[in-house]
Amino acid sequence: MNRMPRLYDAHNHLQDERFGGQQATLVEQCRLIGVQAMVVNGACEDDWPEVLALARAYPEVVPSFGYHPWYVHQRSSEWLTRLRDYLELVPSAVGEIGLDRWKSDLPYEGQEEVFLAQWRLAAERNLPVSIHCLRAWGRLFELIRSHPGPTCGFLLHSYGGPAEMVQPLAALGAYFSMPGYFAHSRKEPQRKTFLQVPLERLLLETDAPDQLLPPELVQYPITDPASGRPINHPANLAAIYAFAAELRGLTIEELAAHIEANFYRLFGRIRPGKSGPAMHCTTNEAAANPKAPVT
């Protein structure tokens, strides 16, 4: 009898109001398909309390607190102090943070300042970081290369940068997470890029409720009760594993073993002992272990 693989969602937004308060049901459905952990990312001061509540309610939730570039203009004068306070309340990551030059109506002013403040905070505490980047890859690379980050590494959520940057970013400690959205036929260039990602740097994500899979791959359909529009259920993670395994020419079991090891290598320090070892690496350990983050 085949054993159900253990699944890990490197990035979602379980706190999102589009789930209509169904989080308990969503988590239970995720448990049924073998989800061991999900990193739930805050985007601004307004949703940090909800992320914290989910982390306290569900052991699968790995909380992450940060200011998304879409919301930096809403930050209070005390935002950084508040962020520090949240990071003290429960073992957590920093994110979602980043740079965005894609949204035409989004001011770029202030984004680098807020990104670097959070990046330095993560480095001080050696916490993993989840990074959003759109059309700012060159500048992001410059910033993280010139400002030392956490030695445990960082996640490039839904990596959409050029293939030629994969190795230089990995050398700085990057992991790359692929969403099910890249299974759409129009995303072939992104799939080709992910074929260049070393297996020891690969993670998977739902980004739920966003980044829906192609309709034929959706196993858990759900809609936003307010709008009636389809949204992404976090239990669609199993379909993402199947898609990624086929892309990489692996069995699901082989892929799952790699993803589990990678997840604990990056997030193990803040999620020790649940379904795998705490695999936090110091700089010296990284030098001794070719699969550890290179800093």
List keywords for this structure.
single chain; 295 residues; alpha/beta; TIM Barrel; eight-stranded parallel beta sheet; two-stranded antiparallel ribbon; 10 helices; 10 strands; globular; disordered C terminus
What features would you describe in this structure?
There is one protein chain. This protein is of the alpha/beta class and 295 residues long. The chain is built from ten helices and ten strands. It has one domain (7-288): TIM Barrel (Alpha-Beta Barrel), CATH 3.20.20.140. 35% of the residues lie in helices and 17% in strands. The strands form two sheets. The protein has an eight-stranded parallel beta sheet. The chain has a two-stranded antiparallel sheet with strand order 9-10. Helix 4 links the parallel strand 4 and strand 5 (129-134). Helix 8 (237-248) crosses helix 9.
